Automatic annotation (TrEMBL):
It comes from Marilutibacter chinensis. The lineage of its organism: Bacteria, Pseudomonadati, Pseudomonadota, Gammaproteobacteria, Lysobacterales. This is NAD kinase. Keywords: ATP-binding, Cytoplasm, Kinase, NAD, NADP, Nucleotide-binding, Transferase. NAD(+) binds at residues 45-46, 115-116, 145, 153, 156-161, 180. Its cofactor is a divalent metal cation. It is found in: Cytoplasm. SUPFAM superfamilies: NAD kinase/diacylglycerol kinase-like.
Length: 256
């Protein structure tokens, strides 16, 4: 990053975020994302994910400031001292999941997920799914509300709410977590190597339809979903040293 980094600011539609955007642009100016040295996202975690999906391919580091309801991926908001904070920030490199979903109509839909890919029942009927790992069937039939695969960074989100494990950054593992499993009743999921290819097959897609969601991108009426860690895409998030992502994940595991 240069001495005076070129910054591209983005803000969620929230009033507080829009006000912060005006303040920061007045101080630091505004640059096009393609020519910027760093991207600054103002909002909550949902807006951070939107920013990563829209601009992650640029390969620019992203610094977030919390101006939303959830801010696990964000730093505290302050209008002063931004340049000093950017120079002192610690990077966290994230590698997203790639989802390829095949629908009942035969369409193939691809998407990235920085937090998780989740499969959920679309009706009152429980989902019936089989699970393959690297081409080998590991679970003939999971009957549940759904199932998800989470990255380490996303393991504190939906995965944790579904009683999945929190995964330390840099361990190159992903979480496979059932959502309200009915059968096998005692199956609690698995921790897998990050390069594992996970494939779900919907066993009764017409009577028991299932949707697949990569972060916020939903694909309905899927019959097969394949998930693998991306080999050629990474994003770098920047965090204040006193509250970096690794420390937040540790704190989450010891909170009441």
């Amino acid at each position: 990053m240069t001495e005076s980094p070129r910054i591209a600011f983005f803000a969620s539609p929230a009033e507080d975020a829009a006000h912060a955007l005006d303040e920061l642009v007045a101080i630091h100016g505004q640059h096009d994302p393609a020519s910027a040295d760093v991207l600054v996202a103002l909002g909550g975690d949902g807006f951070m994910l939107q920013t990563l999906h829209r601009h992650g391919a640029l390969g620019k580091p992203v610094y977030g400031m919390k101006l939303g309801s959830v801010g696990f991926l964000m730093n505290h908001h302050r209008s002063d001292g931004l340049l000093e904070r950017l120079h002192a920030a610690e990077p966290a490199v994230l590698r997203p999941l790639e989802m390829v979903a095949v629908t009942e109509s035969g369409a193939t839909v691809g998407s990235l997920a920085y937090n998780e890919v989740s499969l959920l029942r679309q009706t009152r009927q429980a989902a019936h799914l089989s699970i393959e790992l690297n081409g080998q069937v590991r679970l003939d039939e999971l009957i549940s509300d759904g199932v998800l695969v989470a990255t380490a960074a996303g393991s504190t989100a939906y995965n944790f709410s579904a009683h999945g494990p929190i995964l330390p950054l840099g361990t190159n593992v992903i979480a496979l977590t059932p959502i309200a499993a009915f059968r096998p009743r005692r199956w609690r999921g698995a921790v897998l190597k990050a390069d594992t290819e996970v494939r779900f097959r919907v066993l009764d897609p017409y009577k028991r339809p299932v949707s697949a969601t990569a972060d916020s991108h939903e694909v309905r009426d899927v019959v097969e979903v394949t998930i693998r860690e991306s080999q050629d895409r990474t994003v770098t998030l920047l965090f204040d040293p006193e509250h970096n992502l690794e420390e937040r994940m540790l704190a989450e595991q010891f909170s009441s």
